[in-house]
TrEMBL record:
EC number(s) on file: 4.2.1.24
Record-stated family: Belongs to the ALAD family.
Name under which the protein is recorded: Delta-aminolevulinic acid dehydratase
SMART domains, per database record: ALAD
CDD domains reported for this sequence: ALAD_PBGS_aspartate_rich
The UniProt record lists the keyword Membrane: no
Lineage: Bacteria, Pseudomonadati, Pseudomonadota, Alphaproteobacteria, Hyphomicrobiales
Subunit structure: Homooctamer.
Naturally occurring in which organism (per UniProt): Bradyrhizobium elkanii
Pathway: Porphyrin-containing compound metabolism; protoporphyrin-IX biosynthesis; coproporphyrinogen-III from 5-aminolevulinate: step 1/4
């Protein structure tokens, strides 16, 4: 039997004996796809992909202060949290069986400078949060973003000279940032800057400094995207960002290039790779997973969250169903895990239904 596009060619015209449609409305079909959808138990039986709490990484925003949660206007349901509140949400994550938390700081504008020096302060907000979480909940994974944008006055991920983002000079700073986070107790270093060569440089520095067990999740295929807008509100870099990030983040028109980026990061020592954003790049997730068979993650970014949460808040879509549909879509595309602001909500729903 000849096979094309996964089906026998002989079956492409589904066997059907002609009946007189006017005389009898019943079609003489051998194959009826709806049989397997006839009831909830039957649908469960043939379901191909399942989302579990093990698939979730919960990104959180840290801000200075005490006992305060400040809503992020463009991300309904997401707050900036002071360190003590981060620990409370870490507890919530642990109870929900969410394996890992990702931390992003809102840095006081007075602490931002051209070089992003605060990134290297061992007592910065991220380091404080890592220590506080690890002290109370040592068994939850903590992932730290490596990039300079929350700390620079210009909002770029790297050092700038004459309007140009410097690659190698930036990597030298990122290596120090990664070591600072590892010293604070971070479990997973996640470089999101898209400089060339940073994975290899960070791996070497971690190994040379006794952090051989610290994992690297590389933002390997990260696109220059309009969907990061609400995140930049959350960390306070939206207003200060000069220009765009297209000289280091990828062009959204490209797909082969993503494979080259991922291949390099794997060769340099990435333990896990990530595609970002998520929903507009499901084809990239699938190609990366099929090509490399690596632990492959996807980031459902702030703008994707805002679209669903915003439309739901207006009553335009069923927010819970849209959330679950989008998340299982990542699984279907081949993702092993998802960074999503929906993590606690999705985990609660999974828990309630199990
Ligand atoms: N290096 C910064 C960084 N790390 C994660 C995100 C975006 C996450 C989101 O939108 O949820 C960004 C934004 C950017 O590159 O401008
Ligand atoms: Mg790269």
């Amino acid at each position: 039997m000849a096979i094309k596009f996964g089906r026998p060619i002989e079956l492409r015209d589904a066997p059907r004996r002609q009946t007189d449609a006017l005389a009898s409305p019943s079609l003489d079909l051998t194959i009826r796809m709806r049989r397997n959808r006839k009831s909830e138990w039957a649908r469960r039986l043939v379901r191909e992909n399942v989302l579990t709490t093990d698939d979730l990484i919960w990104p959180m925003f840290v801000v200075d202060g005490h006992n305060t949660r400040t809503p992020v206007a463009s991300m309904p349901g997401v707050d900036r949290l002071t360190v003590d509140q981060i620990v409370r949400d870490a507890e919530r994550a642990a109870k929900l069986n969410i394996p890992c938390i990702a931390l992003f700081p809102f840095t006081e504008p007075s602490l931002r400078d051209e070089q992003g020096s605060e990134a290297l302060n061992p007592d910065n907000l991220v380091c404080q949060a890592v220590r506080a979480i690890k002290k109370e909940f040592p068994d939850i994974g903590v992932l730290c973003d490596v990039a300079l944008d929350p700390f620079t006055s210009h909002g770029h991920d790297g050092l700038i000279e004459g309007g140009k983002i410097l690659n190698d000079e930036t990597v030298a700073v990122l290596v120090k940032q990664a070591l600072t986070q590892a010293e604070a107790g971070c479990d997973v270093i996640a470089p999101s800057d898209m400089m060339d060569g940073r994975i290899g440089a960070i791996r070497e520095a971690l190994d040379d400094n006794g952090f051989g067990d610290v994992q690297i999740m590389s933002y390997a295929a990260k696109y220059a995207s309009a969907f990061y807008g609400p995140f930049r509100d959350a960390i306070g870099s939206a207003k200060t960002l000069t220009g765009d990030k297209r000289t280091y983040q990828m062009d959204s028109a490209n797909s082969d290039e993503a494979l080259r980026e991922v291949e390099l990061d794997i060769a340099e020592g990435a333990d896990m790779v990530m595609v970002k954003p998520g929903m507009p790049y499901l084809d990239i997730v699938r190609r990366v997973k099929d090509h490399f068979a690596m632990p492959t993650f996807v980031y459902q970014v702030s703008g994707e969250y805002a679209m669903i949460a915003g439309a739901a808040a207006n009553g335009w879509i069923d927010g819970e169903r849209a959330m679950m549909e989008s998340l299982v879509g990542f699984k279907r595309a081949g993702a092993d895990g998802i960074l999503t602001y929906f993590a606690p909500k999705a985990a609660e729903k999974i828990k309630a239904e199990s």
